Amino acid sequence: MAADAVEEIRGTAQGTAPVPLSVLDLVTVGAGRTATDALRTSVDIARLAEKRGFHRYWVAEHHSMPGVASSSPAVILAHLAAHTDRIRLGSGGVMLPNHAPLVIAEQFGTLEAMAPGRVDLGLGRAPGTDGATAAALRRTDRLNEGADDFPQQLAELIRFLDDDFPDGHPYGRIHAVPGPVQATSPGGVQSAHRPPVWLLGSSGFSARLAGTLGLPFAFAHHFSAQNTVPALDLYRDSFRPSAVLDSPYALIGVSALATDDEKEARRQVQAAALNMVRLRTGRPGLVPTPEEAEAYDFSPMEEEFVRSWNANVIHGTADEVRTGLDDLRKRTGADELMLTANAHGGDVRLRSYELIADAYGLPAA
Description:
By secondary structure, this protein is α/β, with parallel strands linked by helices. The protein is built from 15 helices and nine strands. The chain has helices at residues 3-10, 35-52, 73-81, 101-114, 131-138, 143-148, 150-162, 181-184, 204-213, 228-238, 262-280, 290-295, 300-310, 318-332, 346-359; strands at 21-25, 56-59, 88-95, 119-124, 197-201, 217-219, 250-258, 313-316, 336-340. It is globular.
């Protein structure tokens, strides 16, 4: 694989960070705020991340959640591409069973044309929502079928991206445009480059598949921490060199929130935890304020959930977060840390990334 293509995946650690640092954005909407506010915050964070040397900025696909405005990653990424110049942009991820592979190839071919050489295509097989919403998205209630067909859907998508269906294939005369076909057409001057594909997961299925195919792997440590080390071990053990990578490359998503004051970090994290309590009990809403969380009467079962959830959120002062991230990296051997800051206010999230950048001595803005 060309050196520049490998660099797209592997990145370079900046400052004193042990590995490249990146950002995962859920475009969270707090109580009293609008989706417009949240998207403006995303632009601000993406600009800060670019200036401070974060390697990539990914947007996750979620549906039917009032507090998460990232239902259309491709649309948001196009917006971010218009406001940035260098940082890698990608999906963390697009949920492949929710979409026709050709549609994803067209969307990310378009993004690649907008931001050449800096687009990632991260793919997951979960619905990114509840079963009823997934059925509405997929126009079927046979949801397991979509997940079970993931390897076949992935192979089809990659063939659309590479424009290399074999002769006689039913899709052999179909081309994802923008895409490589434009480079081979008479008079074609388009780049044949296409976004690198990543597999995302929170269990062993995608870890094994990514390893077998020699693809980079992203694990959702931020909501499946107990599975992180087993999944990364499975990925590395399953890895087979490919045209994409000659050795494994794994990043992990990490909930991390730094504030100027340790007490404020606890308040913000408690509000985010209340949001998760409501989501997990079928009451999704906007991210509550810290004041609302302080006044909330948690049941014993909810308190136990909050303790378990917050145990995997690295939070506190910048120095405390840096120490937590360093320890996590040592425990997991992750090649990259992708940070997601969950808080009610966009200003708090923006400040968190700034504090973490300072703590690691990342390039000055």
